[in-house]
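User: Please go through the entry that follows and flag anything odd:
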Amino acid sequence: MELLIREKLLALYIALLILDPGLLRRSPWLLKPDTLCSLATLFIASRAAELSGLFSRVSVTIVRRFSEMPFMLYAMVILSAGLTAMLITNDAALFIYLPLVASIERVWAVDLLPLYVMTTIGVNVHSALTPIGNPQNLFLWQHYALGFTEFVVGLAPFTDVATALLLIYALALATRVERCSKPPPPLPVRVNRVLAASSVAMLVAL
């Protein structure tokens, strides 16, 4: 799938070059070094947390506690991802929670495609609540010189309604989750604290 997406993007870029030959000369100026550095840092931090065993340990704990309550598991992941997005932007939250969902899926041995989708939606919905939740909000907040509380209060109704609809949908999907007959594996022996601490430090540095 990733290869197919990359090929489509390459084909689109070639088509744009045909329509606008000057695009090739302007392309380097379209790249934003600070954005690329931020994305690279997020990717490295996410990968470091995954390799440290932190996601595995957390996912086993979650499955052990909520495997008999799929809706609670769905709701906890969606809402915690949304809360994180309010504070560190939607992109950063996705780099944390999508690998976590993948780890939960491996441990639980259940297809969690709906949770991937709802986590992504939840992150984007909740990031809209605060001025620092996404770059667009930051621009609007500064452009209209709104107060932090004024901004949050103005967007709260939209976020509340969207959250309610998302949780209703999560409840409907959670009732269809097939329980895995095998018990969750034991907790990992240890978490690589150096990698885990490095991952947290990189996220804080952003």
Q: What stands out?
A: The radius of gyration is 20 Å. Confidence is low (pLDDT under 50) at residues 1-6. Residues 148-174 form the longest helix (27 residues). Residues 125 and 162 are 7 Å apart (CA to CA).
